[in-house]
Specification:
- By secondary structure, this protein is α+β, with helices and mostly antiparallel strands.
- It has a domain at about 315-395 and about 490-500: ATPase, nucleotide binding domain (Nucleotidyltransferase, domain 5), CATH 3.30.420.
- It is built from 16 helices and 23 strands.
- It has helices spanning about 50-65, 110-115, 120-125, 135-145, 150-155, 165-170, 185-190, 205-210, 250-255, 315-325, 335-340, 380-405, 425-435, 450-460, 465-470, 485-500, and strands spanning about 5-10, 15-20, 25-35, 45, 75-80, 85-90, 100, 160, 180-185, 195, 200, 220, 230, 240-250, 265-270, 275-280, 290-300, 300-310, 350, 370, 415-420, 440-445, 475-480.
- Helix 4 crosses helix 5.
């Protein structure tokens, strides 16, 4: 009987179920968007029950599309939007508040107090992260401090915390009836609560934030041969299938790109943009504004690490053109519109809607559209939006060059592996090659986030024997070679740096 691996990719804007064959090719897929909730400026929330409902729907639809039976599924892997924070009641399965999304800035005052108290060096040393609104820990504290029902259920011993991987796996494996309350090191390393050296929750950091260990999930390997649990016959898969793969979305993309060797890098284009550099078993502290994070774990107590450049707003800026300004009807239009002009007409768009992430880490920055003249039209603004994606990636690559040189981890700068939904835009990929001055390589399977989760699960279940089996599946769809000369590349980047400078400290501290 043909065996498949199922991946649930719970992203910022929607949830996807994908089924992969042994060759790593997509067999079936289904997707559903969920609402973006904005209660106040800078606040972003999701309805976790809506997300679970959508998960059930896309799983059932992906199976039904090709009449795939539960017994044909060897394993289930989960990948997720990281840092998005949820606390729910273990006895009812009901969220005690909407999920607070990674883009949300409501914890800005709390983070500033912690920085003013001199705590950032401690958090950086233990977690590899700066103190930022980005991460889960401050969001948990905000919920404890501001939502009475959360405090009451925590005190009663009924509350559970999780990022969206934990929420999905808990529901898949039984929910209120004994669901597995777990996460993996790649997700735990994004909470500001896990010690990179011990791969466990850090009691000193928990005490600083006033977060009880009892609400936190157990940290298990990203690919777990002992399995987290099994799906229920009454659940969306309709059978008892091992759930044994869990990776944060960006680490899953690195895993799906088969970036298993120190020095390999990938860039994922989604709601945000995220570049990861595998540093092997070495924890490399960043001095250039990057994050030190766990890439993946294949056995308890051991991990492969990475440097990461996190960009908050890339694909979301295209969504903003569509939903807020009405300049486009869909993302696919941007390719033709942007290509209709030779450049951005002198304008730059810095989409710092949630502040600036790597390498600047300025939570007080806000978006700016600069260099406007009467000459600038709709096409120039659309092109400037695509250029912003590429220039932000250049910022991160420059920081990676500096950090990798200090650590002795060589970054291969001749090519960059890319993945994610936006990579279907050939104009964007060519622009990225031009702005970086390196070859951009798009694989045959662009949705490598889901593929990475499938690989992690299939590896644990024995569908693939080792990492070399996974490497054998990787193939090139297209290569984009740089066409700009160095003068144009340098001038464009200098203008971008000038535009970024205009966004700093826009919000008063």
């Amino acid at each position: 009987m043909t065996q498949y691996v199922a991946a649930i990719d719970q992203g910022t804007t929607g949830t996807r179920c994908m089924l992969f064959g042994h060759d790593g090719r997509v067999v079936s897929a289904e997707y559903a968007e969920h609402r973006q909730i904005y209660p106040q400026p800078g606040w972003v929330e999701h309805d976790a029950l809506e997300i679970w409902t959508n998960t059930r729907r896309v799983v059932a639809a992906a199976l039904a599309k090709h009449d795939i039976q539960p017994q044909q599924i060897a394993a289930v892997g989960v990948t997720n939007q990281r840092e998005t924070t949820l606390i729910w009641d273990r006895t009812t399965g009901r969220p005690l508040y909407n999920a607070i999304v990674w883009q949300c800035t409501r914890t800005q005052p709390l983070c500033q107090r912690m920085i003013d108290d001199g705590l950032e060096p401690l958090f950086r040393a233990k977690t590899g992260l700066p103190i930022s609104v980005y991460f889960s820990g401050p969001k948990i504290k905000w919920l404890l401090d501001n939502v009475p029902e959360v405090r009451a259920q925590v005190a009663a011993g009924n509350a559970l915390f999780g990022n969206m991987d934990t929420w999905i796996i808990w529901n898949l494996t039984g929910g209120v009836n004994g669901g597995a309350h777990i996460t993996d090191p790649s997700n735990a390393s994004r909470t500001m609560l896990m010690n990179l050296h011990t791969l466990d929750w850090d009691d000193e950091l928990l005490n600083i934030l006033g977060i009880p260990r009892s609400i936190l999930p157990q940290i298990r390997p990203s690919s777990d041969k002992s399995f987290y649990g099994h799906t229920l016959p009454t659940g969306p898969f309709g059978g008892s299938i091992p759930v044994c793969g869990d990776l944060g979305d960006q680490q899953a993309a690195l895993f799906g790109q088969t970036g298993y060797t120190a020095g390999e890098a990938k860039n994922t284009y989604g709601t945000g943009c995220f570049m990861l550099l595998n540093t092997g078993p070495q924890i490399v502290p960043s001095q250039s504004g990057l994050l030190t994070t766990v890439a993946y774990s294949l056995e308890p107590g051991r991990a492969v690490y990475a440097l990461e450049g996190s960009i908050a707003i890339t694909g979301a800026a295209v969504q903003w053109l569509r939903d807020n300004l009405g300049l486009i009807q869909n993302a696919a239009e941007t390719e033709t519109i942007a290509a209709s002009v030779p450049d951005a007409g002198g304008c730059y768009f810095v989409p710092a809607f949630s502040g600036l992430f790597a390498p600047y880490w300025d939570m007080y920055a806000r978006g700016a559209l600069v260099g406007l003249t009467r000459y600038v039209n709709r096409a120039h603004i659309v092109r400037a939006t695509l250029e912003a994606i590429c220039y932000q990636t250049r910022d991160v690559m420059e920081a990676m060059i500096q950090d990798s040189a200090r650590s002795g981890t060589e970054l291969n700068l001749t090519t960059l592996k890319v993945d994610g939904g936006a990579t279907v835009n050939n104009f964007l990929m060519q622009l990225q090659a031009d702005i970086l001055g390196v070859t951009v390589v798009r694989p045959t399977v662009s949705e490598t986030t889901a593929l990475g989760a499938a690989y992690a699960a299939g590896l644990a279940a024995g569908l693939w024997s080792n990492l070399d089996d996974l490497r054998a599946n990787w193939g090139v769809d297209r290569r984009f070679e740089p066409q700009w000369d160095e003068t144009r590349r340098a001038a464009g980047y200098a203008g971008w740096k000038k535009a970024v400078a205009r966004t700093h400290d826009w919000v008063e501290k």
